Amino acid sequence: MKVIKLLPLILSAVVALTSCKKELDFEYHNIPALPVIEGCLTPDGVRVSLTATTPMGEAMDRTRYTNAQMSLLDLTSGESVTLLPDAENYFTAPIEGVPGHDYQLSVSRDGRQYSAVATMYDAPTWLSLEFNWISMPYDDVAVLQGKFLEDPAVPDECFWIRIYRNGEIYLWAAMDDRSSDNGVLTFSIMTSRRDVDEEDDDEVLYDGDTVSCTLCRISRAMLEYLDALGNDSNGPVMFTEDMALGYFMATTPTSLSIDFHPDLIPNYND
Fold first, then answer.
1. Residues with Cβ within 8 Å of residue 192, at least 6 apart in sequence
2. pTM of the model
3. In the structure, how many helices (H) and strands (E) does the chain have?
4. Distance (Å, rounded) from C-alpha 57 to C-alpha 86?
5. CATH number of the domain located at residue range(s) 32-121+221-250 in this protein
6. What is the dihedral sign for C-alpha 58, 64, 68, 73?
């Protein structure tokens, strides 16, 4: 299971360098910007972000574009809706995703077409969420452990865990079901040290902080996409027709929260 502190942005190119005795000068060739489509359908509706890749050497541009036409088709029922930009320049529509249905997101921009299909997943069932102190050579660390039930258990299922600290993204992790024990899955994520003076601001938890975990089923392709992002790569291509980066997923998130009180957390080593 890979744990990421902050979700990296999609890169327009990745170059792997190896050590060499001779200095080499690399000449980077800019390529036309590619659209980046990031879409998610839930029971609350659909929201899609349209951005573009940034040339090497330039500051990352996360401007969301609205000069496109988007639609969502329920391939199972035949229902179709048009997505329109909201105040934050996300394309949205109040369609309720139905677990088990297949959906097709279609995007048209500058004479090019992009399409992706996703099956809507239902929600797994939370069993527990707790903190335990674990002793490390440098300090005690609060480990956040969550348990959930696949319900129903289906072979080769994948999951995305997003952790929020007081409403702001804190950590995320992705995993599959290879560690399933009779349909029960467990994740353990290291968070804050006990000595907060030695902790970075993006990692520290203070007494009274609320930690929330949002859990959802994802496809194997989405797991590979997230895994690639964690390794500073663009990930697999999930859109057909013309070339685009990004993802389209359809899922039912479920959340559970816990307040962080360091004096009340048990020591796992005891």
1. 141, 142, 199, 203, 204, 205, 260
2. 0.82
3. 1, 17
4. 31
5. 2.60.40
6. positive
Are 32-121+221-250 and 125-219+254-264 equal in CATH topology? yes
Per-residue model confidence as pLDDT tens digits over 143-199: 999 999 987 777 889 999 999 999 999 999 999 999 888 889 999 999 999 998 888
Going by pLDDT thresholds of 50, 70 and 90, the confidence category of residue 22 is: very low
Domain ranges of the chain: 32-121+221-250, 125-219+254-264
Question: Which residues, in sequence order, are CB contacts of 7 under 8 Å at separation 6+?
Answer: 169, 172, 229
**What are the structure tokens assigned to 4, written together?**
């990421």
Backbone angles phi, psi at 216, to 5 degrees: -150, 150
CATH architecture of 125-219+254-264: Sandwich (2.60)
Alpha-carbon distances of 214 from 160, 179, 220, rounded to whole Å = 8, 20, 18
